[in-house]
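Please produce the structure of this protein holding coenzyme A.
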Amino acid sequence: MTEDGTTDDPWAAADASWRAWQAMTAPEDGAAADASAATPRSVADGAVVELREVSKDDVRAICRLAVAPGQMSFVAPNAISFAEALFEPKAWYRGIYADGTPVGFAMLSIDRDAPEYYLWRFMIDARYQGRGYGRAAIGLIVEFVRTLPNAHELLVSWVPADGGPEPFYRGLGFVPTGEMDGIEVVARLAL
Ligand SMILES: CC(C)(COP(=O)(O)OP(=O)(O)OC[C@H]1O[C@@H](n2cnc3c(N)ncnc32)[C@H](O)[C@@H]1OP(=O)(O)O)[C@@H](O)C(=O)NCCC(=O)NCCS
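Below is the modeled complex.
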């Protein structure tokens, strides 16, 4: 934190401006209505989990999804992911929906030539965690990646920290490769 109360952390700065935007725009694009909408069922209770293409009609709803404050260092805000995707032809992204409600976001880096299939961003909104959506969405991503040329593994990387996603990924069968991507542990799921 600098003396004037700002921060040098670009993600925190992006998050602060995102929260300001959210507070200013919520009433005008239906977020207030979202808050009173019925909570989707958990997967155990039969929720239908889908990956949907993001359109101009739901991009704001996906940008509003957020992890808990203590998880912010594990994944970039979705608006940042959309911005990065503009400049990365390998980016492939989908909204994660449960019973028709947007609950999360996934972005892959797809390199069919290498081939390399990398789960670049993955999040479930804090309000909807622990309901089986993350596991179900990874299942759908795996199904999709298996249809791609010479897909033998799905890669991911995580920040090794208390409360981080490592137990989630290990529980799904991801195994560290021994490599690091910056500060992140690289892991693979054999397909
Ligand atoms: C990690 C994350 C995607 C999990 O999504 P979720 O919908 O809450 O996960 P699920 O409810 O499908 O849980 C699946 C299993 O993982 C376990 N699990 C999930 N998060 C966990 C955690 N942080 N620690 C330990 N176990 C965890 C669940 O207990 C469950 O286990 P079970 O099947 O044995 O009951 C979500 O917590 C999240 O968005 N975290 C913040 C962002 C993040 O870290 N993204 C990953 C970037 S690499």
